[in-house]
Amino acid sequence: MTGPRHTTPCRSAFRWAAPVLLTLLLAAPVQAQLVPGLAAFQFSNGVHPTFDATFDNASEREVSRFWSGELKAISMRVTNKKEMVGHAARIPAASTDTLQVLIAMERSKALRSTTVHIAFFTTRGYVGPDSPDRERTGCSEWVRQRMVILQRQLAQTAVAAGQRELDNLGRQLDMLGREAQRAQNGIHRAEQRLAQAGKDSAQAAQQLAQLATSAATTTMDSTAVAAQDKQRKKELDRWRDRAERSAFTKQDMQKRVQDLQWALKRNKDDQAAKQAEVARQEAVVKELREKMQAIR
Questions:
Q1: In angstroms, rounded to a whole number, what is the distance separating the alpha carbons of residues 265 and 82?
Q2: 88-107: b (≥16 Cβ within 10 Å) or e
Q3: Closest Cα partner for 123 from 103, 97, 141, 90?
Q4: Terminus of the chain with fewer CB atoms < 10 Å: N or C?
Q5: pLDDT of residue 87
Q6: What pairs with residue 121 in β-bridges?
Q7: Cα separation of 130 and 122, whole Å?
Q8: Left (φ > 0), alpha (ψ -120 to 50) or beta: where does 260 sit?
Q9: Of 43-47, 98-102, 195-199, the least confident
Q10: How far is 34 from 240, CA to CA, in rounded Å?
């Protein structure tokens, strides 16, 4: 078949677009039934009627890659200069003859969406509302089927990303739980050491008191007194050192218990906040899964 005829922009090219699109929107069910929108677009060789497909939260690159692959699957040759063009394309449901398919991308940064404008050229001209039912229905269904495929792919990607985030939040919550358990264990050990330090301190005080009493009541010759004083001094040094170490341990463990109790309180708040994040992300993943299942 011959190539596309050059046309110039005119009002007739847009005259049918608004009422047909409005009719489709009013007639569209509340469900996620995908239907290409009828419109018109300025291609490099003129304004032509199009079947439009809009994909939210999708980059122009991934949308373009998908449609390029679909166009190559049905065309003898695909060029990609100002727009993608599938030459000698075959869509049996639309025509027994070959077609030429023009595809252009339009990115909306404000809406974070990418719209694909698809025009079909047959031996009768560009397919639009006034084209034969077979051409119009066949081209529309070809676009619709691929809309479903790509929307499902995008939805699956979104679900997978959402699930990964949920899994990550779950791991963070588990980590907070383990940190809380370690803090509780640390408090238990510190309290045990604190109790032992109290016992050691009391024992040291008792021994120091006994040594002081024995020194005051001892009556021996000078040689024995000198030997006892030497031994007593060693004992005094040992128990004084033990008393000092006990006092240091008590002070250190008291501070450690306070620090761990504070960390445990903060951990409890962090766990509550993380549990709220997990709940929100679970709702997000659930909604994403429902949207994916509703695509058809």
A1: 62
A2: ebebeebbeebbbbbbbeee
A3: 97
A4: C
A5: 97
A6: 100, 126
A7: 13
A8: alpha
A9: 195-199
A10: 86
Residue type, 196: Q
Distance CA 129, CA 126 (A): 10
Helical ranges in 39-132 per DSSP H: 60-74
Across 34-38, 107-111, 141-145, 250-254, which has the greatest mean pLDDT? Answer: 141-145
Alpha-carbon gap, residue 120 to 135, rounded angstroms: 9
Phi-psi region of 6 (alpha: psi -120 to 50; beta: other; left: phi over 0): beta
Distance (Å, rounded) from C-alpha 285 to C-alpha 165?
9
Place of tokens 């050059």: 6
Q: What φ, ψ does residue 2 adopt, rounded to 5°?
A: -75, 165
pTM, entire model: 0.71
**5 DSSP assignment:** P
Is residue 249 within 8 Å of 193, Cβ to Cβ? Answer: yes
Pick the more confident residue, 276 or 200: 276
Taking the CB of residue 63, how many other CB atoms lie within 10 A of it? Answer: 21
pLDDT at 225 (0 to 100): 67
Q: State the Cα–Cα distance between residues 53 and 147, nearest whole angstrom.
A: 7
